[in-house]
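User: I'm putting together a teaching handout on how multi-component assemblies are represented. Below are the sequence lines for each component of a complex, exactly as they appear in our records. Could you produce the 3D structure of the whole assembly as structure tokens, so the students can see both representations side by side? Please keep the chain order the same as the input.
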Amino acid sequence: MRTLVVAKRLIKQIVADKRSIGLMFLAPIFVIFLLNIILTSSTSKPIIDIVSAPKEFIEQLSENAEVKEVANEQEAIDNLKNDKSNAYVVFKGNTPKITLEGSSPTINGLVMGVMQKNMSKSIRTSQSLIEPEISYLYGSKNLNAFDSLAPLFMGFFIFFFVFLLAGVAFLRERISGTLERVLATPLKRRQIVWGYFLGFGLFVVLQTIVIQLFIIYGLNVEMNGNFWCVLILNLILAGQSLALGTLLSTFARNEFQLFQFIPVVIVPQILFSGIFDLRDAPTWVTMLSKIFPLTYGAEALKSIMIKGKGLFDIQFDIYILIGYTLVFLILNSLALKKYRKT
Amino acid sequence: MSLEYIIRVADLRQQFGKHVVLENINIDVKKGEILGLLGPSGSGKTTLVKAIIGMLNPSHGKIIVLSNEMPTLSVVDRIGYMAQADALYEDLNAYDNLYFFGELYGMKGSEARKRAKEVLELVRLIDDAKRPVRTFSGGMKRRLSLAIALFHSPELLILDEPTVGIDPVLRKQFWNEFERLKANGVTILITTHVMDEAEHCDRLALIRNGSIIALDSPDRLKTASGKETIEGAFLFYGDERNGEAI
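Assistant: Of course. Below is the structure of the complete assembly, with chains in the same order as your input.
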């Protein structure tokens, strides 16, 4: 009951603070939009030479790439070497053979992104294409399609913005003395923690929906899973971040100190969450990545969005995230003992 | 037991790490009494108030409030508390602030709305009730804090420097209200460093450097020290204490 009183007050308070609301919804959109421009501007259409391919394939490919038809493979290889193209395609029967220039991971990613889109479209329409053979002129195996990064970005942005807002809001309550004051009322420590969780939760739900709609429909990334599964997962991730933000704000005396947690707590999570391939990293790095909650969130988002899996397949990740959330909430209510001993 | 004690502080020592803030504090507050804690800032008044309200664990000694040993949550809803620093939600208006705290004390419905009006009228904020608190002056915030402390009609009021920044006319009205509450059996513990305000208290505890240097009615403190003002009495007992130390 008192939990709801706290939640209700928090909602009123946030509604009264127009700038925070603006920040909550516009800031993530703005950053994601910029990221989209960076990753898709000027080189958004890779140059792909076609040595031989079905007409249908070429038509679809030219929607997303600059397509040139060349006479033979030798000419295509020369173009690659002279940076006149980024990749070329040869069909051997039904199997497309794609050769990439290979030196720039960004361009590799771009080409593979376009190819994947094209493949999945073709598969849906004709069912006749087989997994392509991929090779690199300069032998690089390090490939990252933007689409495969999108789930990570989405998870990260939800995680990051919720962390910031929840952390600062709770911190403000402490700096203004209201936290100490409400703890001199019959309000229990855990009631204020849960009240914050619920009150902020409302805005987090809205924010998550907005970010998710923008990434999936605004940026039109590859999405093979169910929209609602992704939403549920994002909300669990956001809840976890909300709990972490309020917990860490307990250890900060002012906003400046709270922001210092970003390089220490947030940045490593991003680095270890799968943006970089950790397979060849030392064991302790792998172990470290298993500690970070964001790793599980990113892994699960990838499974749903790219591999098209359902909630049941990623239940392990969900349990871990919920477990972290509960631990953070309990720790926070213990940390409040600083203000009231009972 | 002919007397009913609302607050009993016995042999209290309060320390943070090695730093002792309060030592050897003994105070009994009777029902319907106004007890003033008088002392300069840094003397330990606020720490004593926080210990009584149950926000601190006594390092040594015992605190009993309304027959319960502190710290406990079970009597908190019978206490009205006004902290030294105004703790208000700046983005919310006065009414929402008041109502939020009221709800935490279990007030609700039409009864709560009626009572909110009453206390806002009492502190002269009824016309500003819908303004966000961030537009309030220091005195207005003080008044709103008092309204919050009075809202749930507690039987014990603990007021930490309630009249700072309040104009003399309103201050007099506050004291009239305190007298009226006292007549209804409400017990009041009030801290102040304003000497003339101290005259209104039934009994005064003079606090200096974390110890009580004298505890009696204002008149008897003046008589016993042979001074004409409370300030004179304070200086007298302070010197006496210094003499002991040497």
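A couple of points students might notice: The first helix of chain A runs from residue 2 to 16. The longest strand of chain A covers residues 47-52.
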